[in-house]
């Protein structure tokens, strides 16, 4: 485990609840002076003599002035979130009261915590590994069922256990191979090459699966940019309003009504789709509309999914084939949606576009909208990854896993080509290094400061 870094012998304090006015606020202290500091502010009871994991009600005072009536929660280290002595003061949610309590604790010897410093101390004291610590920030930021589930799974150590098991096995083989070097004159093998090859093969499959999960992890964590595009009057704004169940975009029979992009978020089965209603694609002499069309083309290139919406009464099957060819040439992930089937009837429409992968809807009459939502989810939840698996959502982990994979492939190629043990050991050590970087067993102070600086203050 990482040795204790400098600058963590003092006591820190911060508001642990969301900023602003509220019924209750929680102020958290952590460090060896947490109990003595609070003891001076809580005259009704000697906190130093109280048992851990107990609650105490009373007045909080400073220099003869009562600040508030509070509940003080005691957590003696190492049985606390940070592994240190921790006190949480639950007070009334007035920002003025919060500030008064913070100032009182600082006057008695605490200092303001930096972003993520409580969780950083939990990591340094061995309460969490680095992947679990990072998942705390993801859990706080989770805004859908899927992102919450993924963060909870990582915080409970699902990802860490997989990596820890692999790392322990590789360490064992690395040690045996390096032991062979001490007996090079005897030409002996302590490390069973067959077992090592099998381990590396299985590990390569596991690591590839984790790397492949990053695409879905990115979708779960950040949502999917979904551009609704098509010609003017195809019904794009009507579709947006129908999906959102509100009149978000202006709907008109006049072509070119949408001049700029309109963006809204829709949660479908735990996945956030960032819907973008774009200007209709056509040649126009109108300067403002032309700018809108240019923005539409930009959104198409940036989108994770493009919903190409068209009026089934206006376009032909050949028009759609040309559009499909254009999307495929640009490697665009698209979904064909034929709108306004209520005009000529769905049966006649299907016959007109027979053989094309089109979902037919009537945005105006809300027909087949649920089918469209299901198709959108299918578009991003491809492959054999599902939300019950360990899913990678962190770019840092993704980059390190790619390095691990390359190292394992080098080990495998080395054994195929009969490389000596000392060269195999180098590649195994490289894989171990990057596995350790993910969990925090190999890191440095600057990297930790960067990672935890992205947390909110008070966590």
What does this structure look like?
By secondary structure, the chain is of the alpha/beta class. 47% of the residues lie in helices and 17% in strands. The chain contains 16 helices and twelve strands. The chain has helices spanning 34-41, 95-107, 117-124, 130-141, 145-155, 158-182, 193-222, 236-244, 287-302, 317-329, 341-344, 346-352, 369-380, 395-416, 421-439, 445-452; strands at residues 12-15, 22-30, 54-62, 65-75, 86-93, 111-112, 224-229, 262-268, 271-277, 305-311, 334-339, 358-360. The strands form two sheets. The protein has a six-stranded mixed β-sheet with strand order 3-4-5-2-1-6, with helices on one face. Strand 1 (12-15) and strand 2 form a beta hairpin.
Shape: flat
Give the distance, in angstroms, between the N- and C-terminal Cα atoms.
22 Å
N-to-C order of helices and strands:
EEHEEEHEHHHHHEHEEHEHEHHEHHHH
What is the strand arrangement across the widest sheet?
3-4-5-2-1-6
| pLDDT averaged over residues | 81
For the largest beta-sheet, the strand count, sense and barrel status come to:
6 strands, mixed
* Low-pLDDT runs: 1-7, 249-260, 282-293, 383-387
Keywords:
17% strand, alpha/beta, 16 helices, 47% helix, 6-stranded mixed beta sheet, flat, 459 residues, single chain, nucleotide-binding, disordered N terminus
